[in-house]
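Kindly inspect this chain:
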Amino acid sequence: MDAAPKTLLSRYLEVRRRTERLAEPLSPEDQNLQSMPECSPVKWHRAHTTWFFETFLLGPRGQPPIHPEWGFLYNSYYEALGPRQSRPQRSLLSRPSAEEIARWRRQIDERMAPLLEGLEDREEDAALIPLVELGLAHEEQHQELLLTDVLNAFSHNALKPAYAPPASDTVPDTPALRSPSDAPVSAMRWLPQEGGLVTRGASGDGFAFDNERPAHRVFLQPYQLASRLVSVAELKAFIREGGYHTPSLWLSEGLEWVRAGGREAPLYGRMEGEAYVVFGLTGEREAGDDEPAVHLSFYEADAIATFLGARLPTEAEWEHVAQALPVEGHLLESGPWHATPPRGPGPSQLFGTAWEWTRSAYAPYPGFRPAAGAIGEYNGKFMVHQQVLRGGSYLTPPGHVRATYRNFWHPHVQFQVTGARLARDA
């Protein structure tokens, strides 16, 4: 017999508990680390997601904030809601303590429960459901950020601390520290696509972020999409053959970025002889050749694609293939704490494993209109100087991504779990 569908309340509690589980291995000192302005302390993530529900769900329903002065501390970027703590200085918030944040989370959950109980059955409150869905998706985004921000902070510690042991009860089938993989790297196959007039973007009544809408038609020239992500073996070939020092492979901005930083490998990785050593959530280890290359900037992904005689796909090309496939893959809580090799002949790794850079700039779809008020600041105002990524990573919560989901980051970003899939013209 099929399990009963989850109510909105049960989904809410599940998401909120996952955040606390992810924070549980971390000490109060760990939770206040902020290694660069793009990252935030774990404690701040836990508080900000709580502030979101208090501000956008409970406040408009007549429930005043429990700690009114905390709004300044945990507002992220909502100009319509007033001034806020400077983002690069979030680690200065040693108080409230991690335990005070935990207590606040419990108090907000207690207030949210009666609001959500039976919400789907109350016609007069139906308009609240999309806002609750947005709050849940928002917290899931911060769950992934919580982990990538901890990884970046730990990478600056000479002791190379591990967030999780190499073998973990929480994440099944996690291997111990591995030696170079004896498994051959699966051949990259090219999957032909006819192109033509296709529909992209979200439609229907299911939840989607505003930047996924409206659905619209685009014309695609015939193309081919790679069956898997670029592998560590291919990254090693790029490094060995002087890829980081070959100007013809790089976009102009990318070459300046490489030279300014003296870069020789992706973030958290380095060559030691023939070995590619990486730092991850389970500590330092040698990556297998069959694993996907991750923590690539857009600049690196584009240069590697050029080195391999290909290009990055557009987001429309990626979505056209992905929308015909089930949303399955290596997502959070489904496998090891690192990116894993492809399974099967492909297309594989489209969902989970690593966010895939596309050649598409983050821009509004035709007919896009941000929502009124502060909530309209969620996505639209960031549509400049960023690239679209697709598919999710091994740190993306299950149920969070879909074929139309648009992630976006600046092209220099490496601290997210980002990889590359190739495309080429037919």
